Amino acid sequence: MYFSVISIEDMIDRVIKFVFFGNIFVGILAVALSLETAVQLAIPFNNTAYYLLLFFATMAYYTYAYINVTVNSQHNNPRTQWYQRNARFAKGNLGASTVMSAVLFVTLIVQYAGALGSLHWAYWLIIVVVVLSVLLYYGLLPRSFMRLNIRNTGLLKAFIIGFVWASCVNLFPIIMLKIQHPTNAVDPLFVMWFFVKTFMFCTVNAIMFDIKDYAEDANKQLKTFVVRFGLRNTIFQILIPLLIIGGLSMFFFAYYRHFSVLRLLINLLPFALSLLVAYSMYKRHRILYYLIVIDGLLLIKAICGIFSMQFV
Predict the structure, then answer these.
(1) DSSP secondary-structure letter at 45?
(2) pTM (two decimals)
(3) Structure confidence at residue 150 (pLDDT)
(4) What is the three-class DSSP state of 297?
């Protein structure tokens, strides 16, 4: 009986690490937040191929980036050790997700080739800026072309992560919708407020992750918020004001969308939970806590955003 319990616990531990270290959960988050965008803005869903592309591309990007970091890292942590023990699987996962992303991308390009030519230049500008930010975040462009690595920019890092995530899950679905249905119109004011809400939420999420890397970033002299201002000041002077900005953006969005009090409270729940998690950062936690709880806040945000629309 004892051995059976250990075996079950070990299996559960393996599954959890597979989902979170293997970046499957982060792919699910990208899709869930994109679905929330469609529901909250009352626009049609994109086609299935788009959501699959988003899932596999997100998983491929984070897997490639972390394999890169692991190879060059001198610090051991559970995620690094997992990648070292499962190097063959990680490379296979990267290869499979990259191939799936490429196939889906080409399929969408061929399917909507005609509509791409008539896409407004403002949408192309957004795509170029976001894709460039994604490539520069881990210095994925050839060094002969550009040596900039946004991940080493300290204070800007969290805001760039927030910007990229908000763009991918709020703006890209709208751009894809314009490609599929050029006549479909979305109120830019609604989009702006919704984008700011997501941008602030994802930025806070990224700053809380920096708390996890405090010791390593301090050794590298990477001036993240927590390294420069300390833990208490980061929570009270950075995280809480950003959450307040995101919450106010939600209030404006709710006012113009005529949300009921119940719908507003459901949408504000993730911000309240983020405050509680921020306070919990005073204690040091295992890496899976950050991956499950902090990333889990993004899933809660998506679920609350979708669920709240049932009370129209």
Answers:
(1) P
(2) 0.87
(3) 60
(4) helix
